[in-house]
C-alpha cells in the first residue's frame, strides 16, 4: 500500500502533543469510563520508553504506587489520552530506561539533571481585545440670558 495515501488518511487523527522525551516526568490525563459515567484520572510518572512512529507511537510511563512499580503503555494519539503535561525534563544517556525496574525506593525514579519545565498540549485561546471607545462628552453649556 502507498505510504503517501496512508499519511493522508492518518493526518486527521493526529493530535497536538508536546515533545515528550525519555526521562521526562509527565502527567497523563486519561479518560476512564465507569458504567455510563466518564471521568479523568491523572497518572504521573517517568517516561521509560518511546516506541513506534506516526499514529502508532506509544510511550511507557512508570511510577511507584505504595511500593509497587506500575507501568502504563499509552498510545500517544489515542482519544483515551486527553492531555499530557511535562512536569520535569530529565537528561538521560539511554533510549530505554528499563534499568529503573530493578531499583527500589527513592532511587527507582531517579533521573539525572532534572530541569523544572512545564509543557502541555492545551491550546491557549487568544482573548479578543475589548474595544473601549472613549467618547469625549463635553458638558452642556448654559446659555446666559
From TrEMBL:
One of its GO terms (biological process) is translation. PROSITE patterns: RIBOSOMAL_L19. InterPro entries: Ribosomal_bL19 (IPR001857), Ribosomal_bL19_CS (IPR018257), Ribosomal_bL19_sf (IPR038657), Translation_prot_SH3-like_sf (IPR008991). Keywords: Ribonucleoprotein, Ribosomal protein. One of its GO terms (cellular component) is cytosolic large ribosomal subunit. Gene3D superfamilies: 2.30.30.790. The keyword Ribosomal protein applies. SUPFAM superfamilies: Translation proteins SH3-like domain (SSF50104). The keyword Ribosomal protein applies. One of its GO terms (molecular function) is structural constituent of ribosome. Coiled coil: none annotated. It comes from the Bacteria. Pfam families: Ribosomal_L19. This protein is located at the 30S-50S ribosomal subunit interface and may play a role in the structure and function of the aminoacyl-tRNA binding site. Belongs to the bacterial ribosomal protein bL19 family. PANTHER family: LARGE RIBOSOMAL SUBUNIT PROTEIN BL19M (PTHR15680:SF9), RIBOSOMAL PROTEIN L19 (PTHR15680). This is Large ribosomal subunit protein bL19. It comes from Candidatus Dojkabacteria bacterium.
Amino acid at each position: 500500500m502507498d505510504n503517501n495515501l496512508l499519511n493522508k488518511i492518518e493526518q486527521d487523527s493526529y493530535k497536538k502533543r508536546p515533545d515528550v522525551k525519555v526521562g521526562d516526568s509527565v502527567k497523563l490525563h486519561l479518560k476512564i469510563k465507569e458504567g455510563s459515567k466518564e471521568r479523568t484520572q491523572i497518572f504521573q510518572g517517568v517516561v521509560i520508553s518511546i516506541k513506534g512512529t506516526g499514529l502508532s507511537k506509544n510511550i511507557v510511563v512508570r511510577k511507584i504506587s505504595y511500593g509497587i512499580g506500575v507501568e502504563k503503555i499509552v498510545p500517544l494519539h489515542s482519544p483515551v489520552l486527553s492531555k499530557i503535561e511535562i512536569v520535569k525534563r530529565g537528561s538521560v544517556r539511554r533510549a530505554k530506561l528499563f534499568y529503573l525496574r530493578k531499583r527500589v525506593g527513592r532511587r527507582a525514579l531517579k533521573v539525572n539533571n532534572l530541569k523544572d519545565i512545564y509543557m502541555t498540549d492545551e491550546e491557549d485561546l487568544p482573548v479578543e481585545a475589548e474595544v473601549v471607545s472613549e467618547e469625549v462628552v463635553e458638558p452642556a453649556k448654559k446659555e446666559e440670558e
